[in-house]
Amino acid sequence: MSTEHEHNPEQPATETGPDAATPETPRTPEQVMQAATARIAELEAELAEMKDRWIRSEAENANVRARARRDADDARQYAVQKFATDVVEAAENLKRGIDSLPPPSDDLPAIVVKVREGLEGVERSFTGILERNGIKKEDPVGKPFDPNLHQAMQEQESDAHKPGTVMQAWTACWTLHGRLLKPAMVVVAKAPPVEIASNAA
What we know:
Layout: H1 29-78, H2 81-99, H3 110-132, E1 135-138, E2 150-157, E3 166-169, E4 173-176, E5 179-182, E6 184-190, H4 193-200
Parallel strand pairs: 2-6
Antiparallel strand pairs: 1-4, 3-6, 4-5
Helix pairs in contact: 2-3
C-alpha cells in the first residue's frame, strides 16, 4: 500500500535549502578585463612594497656591517693604547736622561761624549720604531697653543713670541694614529704689560 508522499526513485531530488548552489552569473569580457586589471594592480603594489622593504633591509644590513668593521678597526688600532702610553713614558725618561748630561763642549771627557752620543742614537732609533707603529712625537714649540694637544703649565710675557704661541715645551705631544696619548706640557707666551696697555688704548 503506497502513500501520497512515497518517493519516486525516478524523479530527481531538488535542493531548496540555504545551501543550494547558485549558478554564477556570466561576466562580460569588459568585467573580466577590469577584474584582471585590478588584480594586476594589486600584485604590482604588493611587489613594490616588498621591493621597498628589501631595499631598506639591505641598507640597514650595510650600515650594521660598516659599524661592525669600524668597531673592529678601532679595537685593533687602539687595543695597544695602554701599552703605547707606557712606552711613551719610557721614551721620555730616556730623553730626560740625555738632557741631564752636560751639554756638548770641547772640554768634556771622552767617555761622557760617547755616552751622550750613544744615548742619542738609541733615542733616535727608539723614536723611529714608535713612529713606524703609529706612535708619533710632536714638538709644539713655535706653534699656536692647542688645548686638544697641549697642557698650559704657565704663561710668560714675551716680546719675541706672538701671544698664544707655545714658547717652551717641557714635554712633547704624543699621539697614537692621530689620537692623543699624552699632551705636551708647555709654556705659552702672553703680551707684556706695555703692549696690553697700548692695545687697550
